[in-house]
Each structure stands twice: as C-alpha cells, then as structure tokens.
Amino acid sequence: MKKLNYFLILLFFLASCTSKNIPLNKMKVIVWDMACADELYIEKMHKDSTLIKKKENIRLYEQVFLVHKISKDQFYSSYKFYQEHADQYKTLIDSVQAYGMRQRSVPNNLIPKSSSLN
Known about the structure:
- There is one protein chain.
- It is globular and about 40 Å long.
- It has helices spanning 2-17, 24-47, 53-67, 72-84, 86-105.
- Helix 2 runs antiparallel to helix 3 and helix 2 (24-47) packs across helix 5 (86-105).
- Mean pLDDT is 79; it is low at 4-17.
- By secondary structure, the chain is mostly helical.
- 11% of the residues are buried.
- Helix content is 75%, strand content 0%.
- It has one domain (21-115).
C-alpha cells in the first residue's frame, strides 16, 4: 500500500512539473501567422527602404502574440520543445504547410480577422 501511495505522489509530482507547451493545433496557426508576419515585413521593406528594419519585425511578431494571447516566452519555449522532439516537430511543420495551403485557397474576404497583421 505504501508503494502505491509513493507511486501516486510521484505520478502527481511529474504531472505537475510537465511543461505547458502550446498545443499543436494552436501552434500551427501561430507559426503560420509568424510566417505571414515575415512575408508582410519583407513586402514592406521592398516598398520602403527607410523603414526601421528590426523594430518593424518585432512589432509584427508582438501583434501575433497579442492576437493569440500568448507571450514571446511561451511561443519560443514551445517552439524549442517541438524542435527537440523530432517526430512532433515534423508533425508541426507538416500541419503548418497543410494549414497554409488551405488558407491560400480561401478568398481574402473569408479569412478570419485574427490572421490579418496590418
């Protein structure tokens, strides 16, 4: 009986210590929005070479974090987790690509407002 109690306490402790990573379905949308922010940044740079490069890119990333109600640290720690677990990282990247293909096939007026970064 004592062994069972110790096992349950250990199990509870391990469950409470697990990292709080962003779930795959939410992470794929965030990564897609980050890629869109990068694309928007590149487009703006081509139009206006006087744009303060680094600050504009950071501003766009902060908008993505704000839209998805996450912090920069949450995003980067979750992204690092996925990178360190090759099978889950591959699933994430494949999911982002599939999500992107679906988003490209949707007419612009039907894309949800949370995906726009102006």
